[in-house]
Sequence to fold (912 residues):
Amino acid sequence: MNAQFLELVDALCRQLKKEEILLCYLSAERSDFVRFNKALVRQAGTVEQRYLTIRLIHARRQASEVIALAGSADNLERALVSMTRLRDVLTQLPEDPWLLIAEKPNSTSVERRGHLPHTDEVVQRVVEAGRGLDFVGFYAAGTIYRGFANSYGQRNWHEVDTFNFDWSVHLRADKAVKDGLAGFDWDIASFEAKLRRSADRMELLREPPLTISPGDYRVYLAPRALEEVTGLLQWDAFSARSLATRQSPLLRMEHGEHLSPKVTLSENIQDGVAPGFQQDGFVRPGQVKLIANGELAGRLVSPRSAKEYGLDTNGANSRESPESLDLAPGDLPVDEVLATLGSGLYVGNLWYLNFSDRPAGRMTGMTRFATFWVENGRIVAPVNPLRFDDTLYRILGENLFDFTREREMLLSTSTYDERSTASSHLPGALLGSLRFTL
Amino acid sequence: MQDTLRRKFKSLHSSAPFYSLRFVDETREQLAVRQDTIEPPRLQADRGAMLVAVSEGGYGYCATSDLSTTGLQAALDRATEWARATRTLSVHRYTPETMPAPRGERLTPQPGTSLSRSELFDLLADECRNANIDERIVERYAGLDLRRVEQLYLTNTGGDVLQQFVYTVPYAHVTANAGTETQTRTFLDAQQGGLDRIPRTGFVGCGKRLAVEALQLLLAPNCPAARMDLLLMPDQMMLQIHESIGHPLELDRILGDERNYAGTSFVTTDMFGRYQYGSSALDVTYDPTLSDELASFDYDDDGTRSEKTWLIRAGVLQRALGGHISQLRAGLPGTANSRACSWNRAPIDRMANLNIEPGSSTLREMIGSVERGVLMRSNVSWSIDDSRNKFQFGCEWGELIEKGQIKSVVKNPNYRGKSAEFWRSLKTVGNRDTFEVHGTLFCGKGEPNQVIHVGHAAPACLFTDVEVFGGEGA
Fold:
């Protein structure tokens, strides 16, 4: 794939006219996707897709087109047609004052081979392992390719074999245990062990569920629940553009609000699985500190925002959203969580978060899957879904007791348009109080 | 291209008794002006095909952008392998002979208006510039999404459906800020049609209007918190229908397919035909016949012919949103709503056009009947549990109603409730004059994930005794 990509880019570069600049970004994958319901297959298939973004710049004017690459013989023809179309668009544009691209070549290459067996075998074994359980899940596996090349001679390549299996085991209605397994090397024994753990944990759901009245409760948010909170912040909390236009949910942090000193949050590309380069050709720093000891410490600055606001870019993507979020651990050992919680809610998962007052950092969302009422450090019973509505400054500020000492590396399960390479490295969070409203 | 594909498809071979090809060719152009600066235009030329094979008991697919005969045959081979491999492992015993073999054509008319890219940029620049009315305006954005889609569906059993779609979607937002207070007003008109529909959308002039309204919201008090009447205008009814009628009625949720991701439903198969979903004022239809609505089509992506269908009549639940395969699995009638977002995703049960039929009240009568309540428009926040029951929604714009009259603008209007109870509090449904067609481009669901467009048309609707509240305060 890399050779085909470079051959195509070289051919396109040869067609450039005087003073034209070309940037190309390849986003491709070959994926097997299998959906399971009731421990049987609902839908199984394979997707092979290759999208090339061609960006043409001339006289400080720029436009881009994403084309689906077809059979190799047709690729150059389609790309040349696209370049012709882009040349026409450029004639109708004024200069772009916020154009910024990497002009000094900085080439990189990462290839990580994994062990992914033929998916038919995986399916057979999963169905056998899930027999007797109400197992629902989604297996995605295959090779992900990202490539960048420009007419300055920069070449970047990122190729990884990964799998991501995300599942839930259901007892009845919405009472279920959620878990997952992701990585580079598929191992059926690891899957079977984790599935057995899911089944064991499901036993905790057999007690009749409690309906908890709205109010303020002590809460433990497991890493997967906290991932939903940080996931909401990924929308635009750390975006230089959102902060400059006063739309970030962290707006009040620029007016004296702060989080708990225990909160230190970074974009940690060096320890994630996302490519270390972006579509403008900038190679990202290994780490960008976003919140340090509860104070706003940095922002994600795309090249475009850098020009607009007179900042230095740190290679953020155009949406200025983190892709490898890293939250520093606390001091609370995981095996002391229930005892420290005492009486309150153990929240395994949250769901469908949104802002109920964005500039105030107030958010709402639901509990989901394995959420339990705990008394005197012991799980008593599952609870019916509850809605919370509270501000970030209370959740990760005045009401944060501690983060756990242990963290989980959660690889994104998102497959919108393509398989995501985002990840989050998160501890659990014990809160002195969280406000539930429905 | 179509005839070439037809020829290539005829030359393919598979051991599966049924196989199909769904070709999607989509071109798109996104133009925008932000802060009086043209954003780099983004074009897209996407095309590919999904091959599906159905053998006795099994189903498989393979999607490819390699449209050569060799590429298509390789994809069909892989789909056939999947169908064979899942023959005894599938949640449903697929039967090749029940797969539809439709024949039809839905062609879009030639565009009535042609504007150059420069003229389109001028249109956007005007709205962006006209929003610059005050130093508290901190962001101004106007954009246009132009999309053409052609789909060809072929089956080895003689099916042949060609459908074309054109979408022109203008949008804008204006944001105002003062200290720790930020308010945004947005414009979106998402329907099918060409550029000639822009003058009818209200886009021209929206820049200044949005700016004025954002500034008004900066100075407005928070929405009061109490149980009171709630008057939802059609652009918020869109979200209310979508989340708390549309998703709960999707048959694949009810059958459990989505439990690991998008969620389940509080609706169960035994409720159809008898469950009182809402008050007797509630009539809900799946209606593909409004040609401009976002998700109007003649055939869904499994080849089922679409027709207007009543889902809820006089408040009683009648029918689920389930496509051909879900109907067979559940033993229930459904609708033609098996849809995929593109060539590289398999069809699943989606909403299409899901509408509330108009009633008989004028807007003035509805406002006049309110002792104390809030009118809300323009969704800004949405959250609902995985059974699609407990919800909380927020709007950009609120107006306090007291003693039958609009009194003042209120900011951060939110409300919460439970789907299973909320629709029974529907008191009055607006007449045809209050009826508006809306839609969303971003309905997410499925594994692998798919984001798709859906249409929702509704009149203004008045609900009683709803928990309403405002923002956090200073």
